[in-house]
Design a protein that fits this description.
The chain contains 18 helices and twelve strands. It has 393 residues and is an alpha+beta fold. The chain folds into two domains: 11-182, Beta-Lactamase, CATH 3.30.450.40; 195-387, Orthogonal Bundle (Arc Repressor Mutant, subunit A).
Length: 393
């Protein structure tokens, strides 16, 4: 299989793995190193790095990489940073825009520099794709991917893959910084993060499951009210089975113009030991396009059901920079999976809810309910709510 071509059946899983690894860095900065490797594989590069510059690109504050010689990494920090011809190009690009730097810096010019002859060439680095993710004050964060001399140049295909990861890099970096500044959730363990990770399923227009992640498999195996057989979800309750049939089969719902906003249901175990919620949402936006799973039209987010109000609205407001009303809507949407149900729960008009959701998308950088809800469920706001004691009656 040629470089740059992932098997269609693996691409959604690859993308999910990268996004999960990126958000893991919110709680544990050492996890950025684990995020770089799956990103390298997804973009089909030979090496990759995430680097934090300070003092207007004149110093390196942090560097995580894969496929680089540690000795050269230290040499860059001490010496080669001052001779790097790629830095001015990154500085000129708008934050969040990825570029194939071969197009911006002709190889004849690069080849004539000491940076290439003594830093890139000895490490067999020839082709570069990257960009600046975020700028705060005199600090900048960049991500870069590299290929060797005998490898083909990066193409638009790999550029799009790298660009699809940018909103998640940026959001995770901002969350990590806000979390550090507020000194909140510093004792959250990796096991709690695992408990908060949502189960994700993708369905085609006929209601068949075309992808599910390990978290979804685990949640389905822990209860008997919702099972997966022959690529279809089956509910023991006739009422819930009718809801599944009506919602998952695209022709049975009113979404011809993309106006369907999602729906959710609660599946209660007989002994009430393990209730779960299934939120069904439209599968569209940048996340859907980037994963390449074109047959999917519906996404399902499966979570252990927490009591109403367990999501920390205050932390959602703080971490994501939302107003109180926008944070309450986001929390309600995460609980219900439906904008109309969220509006009903909050006692507001659906038109008001739509306007607030548009503002939430603009402030958070997400373009779909799936991406927003997934980020909330993986964020400290969900973990904080899950660990807060229940109020006494």
């Amino acid at each position: 299989m040629p470089m740059g071509a992932l098997r269609p059946s693996r691409e959604p899983q690859r993308l999910t793995e990268v996004i999960e690894a990126i958000y893991d860095g919110v709680l544990d900065p050492s996890s950025w190193r684990q995020a770089i490797e799956p990103a390298r594989v997804y973009v089909q590069a030979d090496s990759a790095l995430l680097r934090v510059y300070g003092d207007h690109w004149k110093s390196v504050l942090q560097s995580e990489s894969t496929g680089f010689d540690p000795a050269f990494t230290e040499a860059y920090r001490l010496e080669f940073i001052h001779e790097d011809p790629i830095v001015p190009i990154l500085d000129a690009l708008p934050p969040g825009r990825m570029a194939i730097l071969d197009h911006e810096l002709p190889f004849s010019r690069l080849q004539a520099t000491r940076f290439y002859q003594e830093y890139l060439k000895p490490q067999d680095k020839r082709h570069v794709l990257g960009g600046s993710l975020l700028r705060v004050g005199d600090s900048s964060v960049m991500v870069g991917f590299q290929r060797a001399h005998d490898a083909p140049p990066f193409t638009i295909r790999e550029l799009r893959r790298a660009q699809a990861l940018v909103p998640h890099w940026v959001r995770a970096l901002k969350l990590a910084e806000r979390l550090r500044q507020e000194q909140a959730q510093t004792r959250i363990t990796e096991s709690l993060l695992g408990e908060a990770a949502p189960g994700m399923l993708l369905f085609d227009a006929h209601g068949r499951v075309v992808y599910l992640n390990p978290a979804a498999e685990h949640l389905l195996s822990r209860q008997d009210q919702l099972t997966l057989r022959n690529q279809r979800l089956n509910a023991k309750s006739r009422r819930l089975q009718s809801w599944l049939d009506a919602t998952l089969v695209a022709k049975n719902r009113e979404d011809r113009c993309g106006c369907w906003e999602g729906s959710s249901a609660r599946f209660t175990s007989l002994d009430r030991s393990e209730d779960i919620a299934l939120a069904l949402l439209p599968w569209r936006g940048e996340l859907a396009l980037a994963c390449g799973c074109t047959q999917a039209v519906t996404a399902g987010i499966l979570t252990p059901l927490r009591p109403q109000g367990s999501l920390s609205v205050a932390m959602i407001q703080s971490l994501f920079g939302l107003s109180p009303g926008e944070a309450r809507l986001t929390a309600a949407l995460t609980r219900t999976g439906s904008l109309s149900l969220a509006a009903e729960e909050l006692g507001i008009q659906i038109s008001t809810a739509r306007d607030r959701l548009k503002t939430v998308f603009r402030k958070t950088g997400f373009d779909s309910q799936v991406a927003l809800v997934t980020a909330i469920l993986r964020s400290p706001a969900s973990i904080a709510g899950a660990t807060c004691p229940r109020p006494r009656k």
